Amino acid sequence: MTSSQMVMQRYCSGHGQSLSRLQSRCLAGKKQHVLKRSCICGSLGKNEDFVGDPVVKPAKDFRGDLQNISDKNQLQTILASAISAEDYLLAGAIRDRLEQVMGGRPGRIDWASLDLPEWLSDRLERLGYKFPTEIQRRAASVLLGEYDATIQSETGSGKTLSFLVPILARMLYAPDIFPDDLLGPQAIVVVPTMELGVQICLLAYRLFGGSLSQGQPGNEANMFTYTGPKGIQVRGLLNKEEIVMSKGTPYLSATHLLVATPEALMEVYTGEDRLPLLDYLRILCIDEFDECLKSSSEATMLLLSCAAKNSTFGSKPQVVLVGATLSSDQVSLAVSSGWLVDPISIQVGETGSIPTGLKHRFIVCDSSRRLTTLVRMLRLDLELQQAEKSQVRTIVFARSPEDAAQFVEPLRSALWSEHNISLLLPPGSPLPSPAAGSNENRLQGAMEGSRELPRSNPADPETAAAASHELAGSTPFSATDSIHALLSFRDKKSSLLVCTSSAARGLDLPAVSHVYNLGMPPDAPQYLHRAGRAGRIGSTTGGTITSIIHPEDVTSFMALMEQLKLQPEELSYDTLGAPLLHADDVNGSNEKGYEKLRKGLEDIFNLM
C-alpha cells in the first residue's frame, strides 16, 4: 500500500468508499465556462477547515482593533468569522478596513460569483471554505479561461485552492469522458516534496467527496452531501514505492488528477515501459516553481519541455506556475523556453512579502547554549500564551536532518510535561542509534538512584511508542514516518514539530503560533517560507518568529532582515524567564526537592 493510500484509508469515513474510486457512479452533464480575460479584484475571507477546534479568537474580539490591523490574511479570516457568526455590522466594518488596506472595494464574495460548477461551490462551502480569498478570486477567471499564468502571493494566502479549484472545474467528467476512456491524466500538479504532495492529494480527495471527519457527528462535508462527479481518481507519484507500482500495476490507469514530484514523474514518463502521463494532458501546474527549479532543475525543465511538445491535442497544455517567491528571471526562462505562452501574471502583494501580523525576534548565543536557550524560550511562550488563554503550537527548524534527529530526544526529555513532540524529516534521512557513551547514559550511571529519562508523556502510550520508534536507529526515516509526523501535528496530537527546510514550502498546518530557526536561515526565501507557517488565513493568533543565532552570524542575519524589510527585536538571555535550575532547587533537602534538582541537572546535561 502506498503512502497516499495509507493516509486515505486511515481517514476514510467507513461508508464503503473505495480508495481507487472516490464514488462508484458518474454524473451526467458538464457546465461550460464563458469567461473574460480580465482579472477580478477585491478582498475576501475564508474559514480554515481545521481538524478539531481551531485556536482562533472570535471576530467580536477584534471590534475595537480593526484600524490597527493591516495583515490581509488576518482581516480575511476575521471577515469569514464575522459572517459565520451573522454579525453583519462587524462584517461591514471589516469590509471597509479591507478596502482601505487593499485599495479597492470588493464585489461579490462567494464562490458562485466565480462561475464554478454548482457542485464545486457547494463542496467548498461545506468543507469550511466559506469565501474565496483575494488570490483565489483573481486566479479563477484567468485559469478557467485556459490562459497560461503565474500565481504569486504571500505565504498563507490560499494559493493551493487558487489553482486546484479551477483545475477541478476545467477537467472533463462523464458523459463527456468516462474514467475507463482516460489514456492519461487530465491534470498534473508538480510539487517539490512528498509532504506537500500528500497535502494536495488529500485536499483534492475531499473536494471530490472523500471524508476525513474521523467520525465527528454533524459533519456537513460527509460523502452523502456530495453532488459532484463520481468515479474520480486522484493519485500520488511521490516516492519510490509509487514509482514501482506505476510500472507493474494499473495504479495510474483511469487517473483524472496526478500529483507528483519532478523526478518521479520523469522517471515513469521517460524510463522503460514509459506511461503517457504528459501526452493527454490538459493542465500542468507546478507549485513552488522556484524550489522545483532549485532542487530538481533538470527534471523540472525536462517535464516542461516534454509537456510543451508531446500533447496529443495538437497544442501544449495550459501551464500554471505558482509560488510566493517567483523571480522575474524564472518567469522569463519559462517564456523564452516556450513553456509559457502569453502568460497572465496574477499577483497579490509585493514579491517576497511576509504577512504583516507576524512578530520577529532573535537572540544571540553560542552553540553550547542553543538548546537550553530554546527550552527556556519555549517555556516562556507557554507561560505567556496561558495568560492569554490560547494554545501554543510551535515549529522548530533545524539546520539539517542529522541536527534535528540529534536534539529531538533531549527536547522530549526536557519538555515531556509541556509539549508532545513530532519529528518530521525527509524520507531516507538516517536516524542515530543511542550510543552507549551518550550524555544521557553517562549521567544516569553517575547519579545515585537514576531512572530512565522520559521520552514523551508517559500518560500517552501511543505517543511514547511513536517516540521510541522514531529514533530507534534501525532504519532510515521512511515516507510513512513523515506522514505520521505531519498528521500528528496537523491533528493536534502533538504541539511541537521539529523539522528541516523541506517542510517550509506550502504545508498548511493549522494555528501555528510560534516558529523557531535553530541557527542562521540559509537565505531570504527560506526565512520567508519558514515564517509563513504562521499567520496563515484561518488563524487569528498572529505568530512569532524567533531565530537563535551564533555570534558570528549576527552581521549576516541583520543584512537578511534588511533585505526583507524587517526590524526584529533582540532578546537577552537574562530575560528568558525561569532558568532550568533554580538556586532554591540546589538547597532542596526533601525527596521532592532532590527530584527537581536531579531533573534540572539532567536537562542541562542533555541539552549541552
Topology, please?
Layout lengths: L2 H9 L60 H13 L3 H15 L15 H9 L7 H11 L4 E5 L5 H12 L16 E4 L3 H14 L26 E4 L2 H9 L8 E4 L1 H9 L12 E4 L2 H7 L1 H13 L8 E5 L5 H9 L7 E5 L9 E7 L5 H18 L6 E4 L3 H15 L5 E3 L15 H8 L14 H10 L8 H12 L5 E4 L14 E5 L5 H8 L11 E7 L4 H10 L5 E3 L11 H4 L4 H17 L1
Parallel strand pairs: 1-6, 1-7, 2-4, 2-5, 3-4, 5-6, 8-13, 8-14, 9-11, 9-12, 10-11, 12-13
Describe the structure.
The protein has 608 residues and is of the alpha/beta class. Among the domains are: 3-13 and 33-42 and 107-348, Rossmann fold (3-Layer(aba) Sandwich), CATH 3.40.50; 43-106, no CATH class. Helices cover 38% and strands 11% of the residues. It has helices at residues 3-11, 72-84, 88-102, 118-126, 134-144, 159-170, 194-207, 240-248, 262-270, 289-295, 297-309, 328-336, 370-387, 401-415, 439-446, 461-470, 479-490, 524-531, 554-563, 583-586, 591-607; strands spanning 149-153, 187-190, 234-237, 257-260, 283-286, 318-322, 344-348, 358-364, 394-397, 421-423, 496-499, 514-518, 543-549, 569-571. α8 (240-248) links the parallel β3 (234-237) and β4 (257-260). α5 (134-144) packs parallel to α6 (159-170), α8 packs parallel to α9 and α9 (262-270) packs across α11 (297-309).
